[in-house]
Amino acid sequence: MRKESQDLSWLGAIRKRGPLSNEEEKSYQRSLNGLQGEVAFDQLYRHFLGNETDCLDDVTLEYKGDVLQMDKIFKDKNTIHLADIKNYQGNYVYENNALKLGSTTFANDIIEQARRSRRIFTRLFEDYHLPLEIQNVIVFINDQGRITLYDDLPEIVLNYEEIPGWLMKIRNHTQQSQEFDWQNLIQKYQISSYATSRICSTERLNHLKKGIHCEKCGSFSLKSTRYTFQCLCGHVEIKQIAFLRTICEYGVIMHHLPLKRSEIIKFFGEKYSSDYIKKTLSNYFVPLNADIKDGKYQNYGQPFNYWFENEATRLEKLEKRKNWHSSF
Length: 328
Description:
By secondary structure, the chain is of the alpha+beta class. It has eleven helices and 14 strands. Strand 11 and strand 12 (236-238) form a beta hairpin. The radius of gyration is 23 Å and the shape is elongated. It comes from Tetragenococcus koreensis.
């Protein structure tokens, strides 16, 4: 499953409860736009290739002191493709080793960034005597954007309408492919994705809106039944899951600190039962100390769907409560 970055999660969690600065809002929109582009390419990739080829998504790799991040890595015959996905709008040109939009020249050279990644992967594969070629693929995924090349480049650069035909070629090559253990080699040097450097101050936390918001529309005006929260938009969420989701949201915002019971109770506000919050923490979160009286729990700094992704069976049992019609 492709995951949003911790930086995007942090900005999104703050944004639901209070205003972002101009810089934060721009970063949020830029990161969200990038993620949406990656997801759009994933959908095209699955449509044309299904499970016929192996791939790795969102790879952050460190090798001999060099760190890089790749949106997608996959194999075609004896070539490993390193895919950079750009969700850009507008008519771009690449000329004289520079990316331009109108009269604006971008400081970041997307081609040189791609070549740096290729050099690192080439060295890795050569050091382990893995006879695979490395090819950069730069994908302009937005149908409202395109790039025109005036430089002769060895990299594959695709506009939106060119993606399906190119993926069809990949599909036709898969059965001719030799097998090499390339994924395990990459995963050997894979590291955690970049953690956000953003910190929410206590003052800012105190000014954020308190309580549980609708998972779908973001409204804080929820009707409570015995087992669910119901929103005017029509969305219904199991109460226990809503509490778990909100605790995880606090964890994202305060990722640099342990989960602290007293602070989480304040984060929910007076409307919500402190006993229910304590019980939820005790049943679902890992205490930092043997003596749980200090009320501190492990904080993974992740949204609910990532934090609890390995507990599907347990959560499915909770979901059955939607069919229980008792109310307060």
